[in-house]
Here is the input.
Amino acid sequence: MTVQNTLTKTWTILKDATAHFGASDGWAMASHIALSMIMALFPFLIFTTSLAGFLGYEAQSGAIVDLVFDTWPDDIANPIVREVNTVLAERHAGFMSAAILLAMFFASNGVEAVRAGLGRAYSAPSTKSFVKARLQSLVFVGCGAVLLLAMSFFMTFRPQLFEMAVRSLPFLAKLEVPLVLLRFAMAIGVLLFAVFACHAWLPAGKGTISEIWPGILVTLVLWVVCANIFTAYLHSFSDYGATFAGLAGIMVALVFLYLMAVILLIGGELNAALAHAENPARWEDDGSGN
Here is the structure.
């Protein structure tokens, strides 16, 4: 394939992806995802920290919050972390109380919003019944909570675990990674797994790993670039404090999550456009140009 043909094919794929993003109400779906994620964030952390307390690891709450927000820019994460810690400082009635069950339900709304957005991006809206879809979303929430709890437990006891490993395998002493780098790497791992799970299991038309990895890679790269640009914008041009007063922290987080949601959906659109270019017969024309 010549360079010209490659460029032509790339341009066609990008044009199809962006056209379908607009035709499938991508901007509106990104708003829906961002708002749903903000509303799901606090319930999810309440559920996760309550699970930690139920299992006797209440001291892990701080580590869990750190893992969730380690990949966020500090200017965006710090105000939210303060609010989260204020909420978590309140005593909750118990792990199996009605409040915790409601927290699980509201947290699952974030998963449902992502399902709807990626379903449109892939032209594969969910065919599950409300009950099956909600149960899957609750499984996502539960697995996410357990994963965060396990990783926070590992981070807390990492020095002791590493010391035990070195006693058995002395050569590991040369491989010790600073705790801050390991924690960041684990946060990136959680993020990567979450994006993969959303693409692989939420849309009705599930693609293979080879079909979904380009959109996942583009999503992660664009998230990093966009996060840095948005942080620079906050430092140089914006004055959210004067505009939104006490709501500034939430509004900044909402705008940030909106941008992240746009990029997530674009990743899905890119995967769909690539699959359509490789095998047009596999994708039914839904009237939106993809």
Observations:
- The chain is about 75% helix and 0% strand.
- Confidence is low (pLDDT under 50) at residues 285-290.
